[in-house]
Amino acid sequence: MRNSRHAQLRRVLLVAPTALDDAGQPILQNRLYLPGLTLPILAALAPEDVEVSFCFESVQRIPYNEDWDLVGITGMGSGIVRAWEIADRFRALGVPVVIGGVAATLLGAEASLEHADAVVLGEAEATWPRLLEDLRNGGMRRVYEATAAPRPEDLPVPRYDLLPRWKLGPWRAVQATRGCPFACDFCSVTSFFSQRYQKRPVAHVIRDIRACGSRFVAFIDDNIGVDWEWCAELWEALVPERITWMSQCTLHIAERPDLLDLAYRSGCRLLSIGIESVNRNSLESHGKHWNHPDRYGEMVQTIRDHGIEVSTEMMVGLEGDGQGVFQDTFDFLMDNQIAVPRIHILTPVPGTPLHTRLSGDGRIVNDELDRYTGGSVVFTPSGIDPVLLLREYWSLYERLFTLKGIWHRTWRNQAALGPFMRAFVVGVNLHYRRHIKRRITPGIV
Questions:
Q1: 306 falls in which pLDDT band (50, 70, 90)?
Q2: What is the pTM of this model?
């Protein structure tokens, strides 16, 4: 970092890197369908006299040639590799760089310090203002690590006004909760938040909804449906806001028809649910024993009977999986007409208990992080040949996302979706179909 820059803090660029394709090229698209909240929240915490700009690389060119006093880069999963590439280029231009986010935290500071002047570990709200002040007063420290989680009531209104509106779809991100209390061994969220779960004050959630600039809201919570009393309070407060919303939760919601009624009245039209596998042994092998495959169909139908569509997150290559997992997964998704199925190959993310275990057993066979996309095999599976796992994974996706398969799953099911949500669900399927043809893991960008 150039000493002449230490005392300057006029212009800050925040970058959200895209992912890389199989050829190592950035994955670009025309629309940013769901912008994250990291950049808008950090911008809200910057001093008023600092000009902050965003760059979402999937839809925007990175302005390398402009005059920046600091570049902050965040990213999840395999996106950390692209973050390092971007950081190296800015540093070659003499611009100081800070890297943070889930991947940087789970990998540890040393991995990113090879590419950045400073690394932020953990949730950045507590450390970002101090980092900016340090830079203004003479220089950043090498590592900033939050000693405590930010209080939910202290989170600022995100700077939605800085989003590249000409590149956005209709959805805006709002956060109501952080983390998840469950302990699935593959989950980077659980590892990052140390199994902590926080709920924001309902009034603050409503404040952010009114600020976001759209009536289509995606709660980017990892598990919105944990505390039913709090959910009831939030969803009652959402009714007069007249929004349409979607989020993630567990199948436990199917046990509460009263809350499903309230969720629908509050505007909920789609819930993404991590069911992971139709194989009970596979679930128990990874700490997700509370899911009951024998009841999946019934529970999905209960949610759908209340007018809410279901999207699912599943994995193949789990410890209990054999070669029959591909057909079993296909049959479940088609028989239950799952509108938006997402599937990943089990990926032992560094920093998770799964990675620690498999690494200790000598089963990690690829440590190139750009392959940790959910669409590659980076470990030795216990019950499936790795070549077969990769081939059958993409074959499964191709079968699900034929035009006939999309029609069967989206137009024939009975969820009470209006024209907008029906078109949205079909549009997501067509978007994923294009990515599958390019061997880009659906949902990675």
A1: very high
A2: 0.94
